[in-house]
Amino acid sequence: MTGTGRDRYGRRTGAKPRPPKGLTLRRAPFGRGNACSRNNLSSALFSPNLPSITRSPKEYSTMADKFDVAGFNKNFIERAAQKPAIATAVVHPCSRDALLGAVEAAHENLIEPILVGPESKIKAIADENEIDISAYRIIDTPHSHASAAQAVALASKGEAEALMKGSLHTDEYMGAVIKKDAGLRTGRRVSHVFAMVDPEYPKPFFITDAAMNIKPDLAAKVDIAQNAIDLMIAISDVEITPKVAVLSAVETVNPAIQSTIDAACLSKMADRGQITNAIVDGPLAFDNAISLEAAKIKGISSVVSGDADILLTPDLESGNMLAKQLVLLGGATSSGIILGARIPIILTSRADGAQARIGSCAIAALMADARRNGRFPAL
């Protein structure tokens, strides 16, 4: 038994725990080497002119130095909403969040939803959650597999400029997209990008590939990197040369760790023009990629360190865990999209809320606009 005022482990309850005398606990800053005042936040997606300032943890921990995630997301969605809304086949929106995300994206003038799925089920979910879908076309299908096939057919015929995942499994969704006879594949490998915004890092950034390529080899990583680079350039409203950090567990080449060899090759391939329009460096461990201070401590001299725009992870497992850890434990927001196909393919987790779906639609709208205006390379 425990005494009055203590929990089952004998710890005092009610009083705020204090660190030992002489020790101050602070949350470690995610990107302390590059502080960015939220007062300088622009509507640009990725600004190449962000300041690089080395600050102490105490200086960085002030609220003025936190990246304004909410403000950025608002500005980004507003910028995308100024472009024409894109006809989007929403595949099997048979959950509250999937349906609400599509409808709210439509209210933001990002998409014109075509709801593809069991009509009775979609209407029942809408009625149960008081979601007005009366303005949107519904294409009735018997099940999720048929929903995916029908949505892809709409895109192949040009009736949809984008696809949006609803409440079906990713394998089922993407299986329909990448079929050879679907008409959506290109010469480029299909890959996934998480667009991340974190209050502890001074600018938005990409994580790739966290959803499509399980164990990509060097050739696959070339396409994965180029897909992310092309997207970042296309949807930015300022000129930018993205900085790509090719991640591994260590920052030196180790013949026993394949990801370090791949990273070194990718860096040299960028030097030789085999990867274009970006600065690529690796291998870099995560800390030297996002913290200039960590890079300096380890003696790493790199223009990418502490200023990375794109984090290219060794494989799907590491990328997926990194992105979800930042969201669930680090206060980040994320949006997901598939690249390398003929149209934007919006891919979010079934557990994602409406905000993640809206952000993904904003990226798709900007990407589609870039394609229309020749700012996105023909694949």
UniProtKB/TrEMBL annotation:
UniProt keyword annotations, A-Z: Acyltransferase, Transferase
Recorded GO MF terms: acyltransferase activity
Stretch list, region Disordered: 1-31
Annotated Basic and acidic residues bias: 1-10
InterPro entries, per database record: Phos_Acetyltrans/Butyryltrans (IPR050500), PTA_PTB (IPR002505)
NCBIfam families in the record: PRK08190.1 (NF006045), PRK11890.1 (NF008852)
Name of the protein: Bifunctional enoyl-CoA hydratase/phosphate acetyltransferase
Biological source species: Martelella lutilitoris
